[in-house]
Amino acid sequence: MNANTVNTNDIFNTKVSDIRWLNSNRGPNSIDEKKLKEQEKQMKKKLAKREQRLMEKDLPVYDPSKPPEIIVNQMPVNSSDQKTKDLIIENFDIHYGGKCILMNADLTLSFGRRYGLIGKNGVGKSTLLRAIAWRELQYPEHLTVFNVEQEIQGDDTLAIDSVLECDKVRTELLKEEKEILHKLESKTDDESKLSSRLKQIYQKLEEIESDTAETRASTILSGLGFSQEEQKLPTKAFSGGWRMRLSLAQALFSRPDVLLLDEPTNMLDFPAVVWLENYIKHELRSTLCVVSHDRAFLDNVTTDIIHLHNYTLESYRGNFTTFAATKNERRRNQIREYEAQLQYRQHLQAFIDRWRYNAKRAPQAQSKLKILEKLPPLQRLGENERLVYFKFGEPERVTPPIMQMEDVSFGYVPEKIILEHVTFDLQMDSKIAIVGPNGSGKTTLINLLLGENKPNSGIVRSNGRLKIGHFNQFHVDQLDLNMTCVQLLASKFPGQTEEEYRRQLGRFGITGQTGLQVIGTLSGGQKSRVVFTMIAMSHPHVLILDEPSNHLDMDTIDALTLSLKDFNGGILVVSHDEKFLDAVCNEVWVCSNKKLTRFTGDDSSNTGIVKQYKESLNIEYI
């Protein structure tokens, strides 16, 4: 095992105890019992302090019919230093939709460093970014912050102009320049004053490198996948995903003091991810705080990790791999300290129990009792997040051929072919990753295999008994939001008991009362789990998964990874998550330039084949 690999068994196999348990076998002693009860009472108060804060009388009652508010409680900000570009927010609380997100938290983002913000789905990572961007949290006014949260509005503005116009200073200077030049031509104002002002404008434009702005904007757009022709199209011509890329381009171009990114790789293909990694490392002049589930991306771009859990923020130096190793070691140290303290208390208690009624040793026993009573309450180990397990079941065997494409060509219109002369074979033991630029035909390939598209030429074959488990975001978005999870399964797979439906949901981490919740109240990750449950209940021979890790937290991705590694059927995955693909797949097929070709890589290399493909792209940031 790699030294940096986190062993979850080491982390989660811990002892949890309290004072009452520690002293449960002691003999009667009125003074002793009274002191211990008081000590336990104080400990419980301390442990419950956070929960009590939730009951603050000024906290509004959550009304599901209204959009949730971000409620912030914060110490006053000292903004005397007008030069610092560090973002420091101390001693603050955040509540959202009636739920506590953070309590007594501190956040420091030092200028120029790149932070990865991680935590389970639903703990409030995106809420924290919004609270910063919307200035619900207070910090010095001179700091500029850009949060890439939603796609830009589509209108007649050209793509490249939408990026250029986000530089408000440059836009206003150019506008004023145009007005002054018009006045000078008409000779209606004081020419000397206008000329003086025009000189100032030119000086400021030079300072902000205005003459290189269009080249810089075009470079950013090209890196994010926009061709030169597409850069001249109006923004309304692009889909939501591409308008999100435009929003990201605006953020990179505007060079804010603090750049906030929420799952930026969800909207990008492999070439764009590689370009963004290089741009962030070599060109970005801002402080970065990024939420991402993509561990390879975090490893490649971050200098620090901030872990949001248990209503607080914990900071770690280094990238995600360093964080995982450090967190594991920190947990082990906590366990050792806890067990040492517990052993010391048990030693004292054993001495007291043995000698308290012995006339000669009673004074010593009383002394030990005083020592025990003066010890601070034994701090419980922080609760570990519950592990999630998925299970797709054992598929029945079917005879070949499973799924085949022979010399297939396809286009929605004859004059615009998307794929041509594709030959491809998926077997029961296949573990295949499909990669390539957005728009290259990956989803079209899946639809051909599923029979949803018919080839213009060539043959697509599949076994008549074949059951396919297909996952994509459309399936998640089309769930009936007014049904409970159990009701949905009953409508799709009738004839089983409620207990059986709940058991099936439990195999994918939908446990307890969650299975009885209306689907509209579930998070994106939980909805994905419901779809995975339906796939498992269909007993598939083959899994075809289109971006399955989007919207999942890291623990859920780990569970999905393990379940796919254990699955004995065929697997085809479209994804840009490098570590996920390298863990699941042993073949990489590249969809590009209307072709589907296998990437062979170097079998003797210790590097995963997907990482080898990514490195082979050799994409520069300029």
UniProtKB/TrEMBL annotation:
Residues 82-335, 403-618 form the ABC transporter domain. The keyword Nucleotide-binding applies. Pfam families: ABC_tran, ABC_tran_Xtn. SUPFAM superfamilies: P-loop containing nucleoside triphosphate hydrolases (SSF52540). Keywords: ATP-binding, Hydrolase, Nucleotide-binding, Repeat. The keyword NAD does not apply. GO terms for molecular function: ATP binding; ATP hydrolysis activity. CDD domains: ABCF_EF-3. This is p-loop containing nucleoside triphosphate hydrolase protein.
